[in-house]
Amino acid sequence: MSALWIDHDPTPLQREQKIERETHKLEKRLCRLMGQAIVEYNMIEEGDRVMVCMSGGKDSYAMLDILQKMQQRAPVNFELIAVNLDQKQPGFPAHILPDYLAKTGVPFHIENQDTYSIVKDKVAPGKTMCSLCSRLRRGILYRVADELGATKIALGHHRDDILQTFFLNMFFGGKLKGMPPKLVSDDGKHIVIRPLARVAEKDLVRWAEQRQFPIIPCTLCGSQDNLQRKQVGAMLRDWERKHPGRVESMFSALQNVVPSHLADGTHYDFKGLTATGVASEDGDKAFDPPEFVAAASRPGLQVIQI
Ligand code: SF4
C-alpha cells in the first residue's frame, strides 16, 4: 500500500512568516552588496556629506533607504542629504518626494528649475530631448552640490545599468567602456559614486514593492524610451534566464581585466613585447584552445559551463 501525501496549502501565518524571512534576507543582501561597493571603491569616507540624487524612481528610493541603514552601521560618520530636481514636467506630482523625505527624517532639498520649457523650446519637435535635458540637469546638480557643501554625489545606477552601458558602448560605440562605480565629474570638481553598483535590478524591484515606495513615473516628459537600452536589457535578462549566474560573471569580468589579452596597444605594450626566456606554468599556451577557468573562487561567482 502506498503512502498518501497530502500537500497542505500554507496558512496565512506561514505565508506571512515566509515573506518576512525573505525580506530579511533581501535586506541583508542589499546592505552587504552596498557595503562591499563602498569599501571596495572607497566611496564614502569619514566626514563626507553625500548628496543623494532622487528621481522618484525605484532605484533612487532604494539607494537612499539602504544608505540610511548603512549610516547607522558604518564605522565612519557621514551625512546624507537627498536632492530632487523638479524639472517642471507637466503632471509631475511635486508633493510626493517632499512628503516621503519628510517622513524618512533625512535632510532634503528640492531644486525647482523649469528645464522642461527650455528643452521644449530648443529641441525641434520629434527630435530626442534627452541629451539637452540631461546636460542641463547635470549642470544644475553640480551647482546644488556646491551650494550644499556636498563632498560626494550619489547616483542610483545598479549592476544591470552598468552592464547595459557596457554592451551599448561595445555594440554601438566600438569601445570597452561601462559605467564606473566612482568617477570624477566632467567639470572636474565632484566625486560621483554609485553605491548600488553591485546590486541586481530584480532585487531593487522586490525591495521597492516590499517598502511600497511612492514611485513617480519616468515618462512625464513625453520622451521615447531608449529603445537600444531596452533591447540590451532584454538580451541580458534572456541570457540570465537561460544561464543563471551569467550576469554576475559578466560584472565580475569588469573587475578582472587582462589588458595583455585584449588588443589595445595603449593599455599594453605589444610593440615592445620581448620573450622573457623563463618558462612559467601560468604563461600563455598560445597554441592550445583557450581554457575557461571556473570563477567559483571569486566571491559571488558560480562555475560557468561553456
Ligand atoms: S527621459 Fe525625459 S526627463 Fe529623462 S533625460 Fe530624457 S527628456 Fe529628460
The amount of helix comes to 40-55%
Q: Which stretches are poorly predicted, pLDDT < 50 over at least 5 residues?
A: 299-306
* Spatial shape: globular
Strand content: 5-15%
* Named CATH architecture of the largest domain: 3-Layer(aba) Sandwich
Order of helices and strands: HEHEHEHHEHEEHHH
Question: What is the CATH class of the largest domain?
Answer: Alpha Beta
Radius of gyration: 23 Å
Category from helices, strands and their pairing: alpha/beta
Work out the count of structural domains: 2
CATH superfamily of the largest domain: HUPs
Taking the alpha carbons of the first and last residues, their distance comes to 46 Å
The CATH topology assignment of the largest domain is: Rossmann fold
Number of DSSP E strands: 6
Care to describe what's here?
With 306 residues, the chain is an alpha/beta fold. The chain has 2 domains: 21-217, 3-Layer(aba) Sandwich (Rossmann fold), CATH 3.40.50.620; 224-270 and 289-306, no CATH class. 43% of the residues lie in helices and 9% in strands. The chain is built from 9 helices and 6 strands. The chain has helices at residues 12-40, 58-73, 96-104, 115-122, 130-148, 159-173, 201-211, 227-242, 246-254, and strands at 49-53, 79-86, 108-112, 152-154, 182-184, 191-193. Helix 3 (96-104) links the parallel strand 2 (79-86) and strand 3. Helix 1 packs across helix 2 and helix 6 crosses helix 8. The longest helix has 29 residues, at 12-40. The chain is globular. The model is unreliable at 299-306 (pLDDT under 50). Residues 129-130, 133-134, 221, 223 line the site of iron/sulfur cluster.
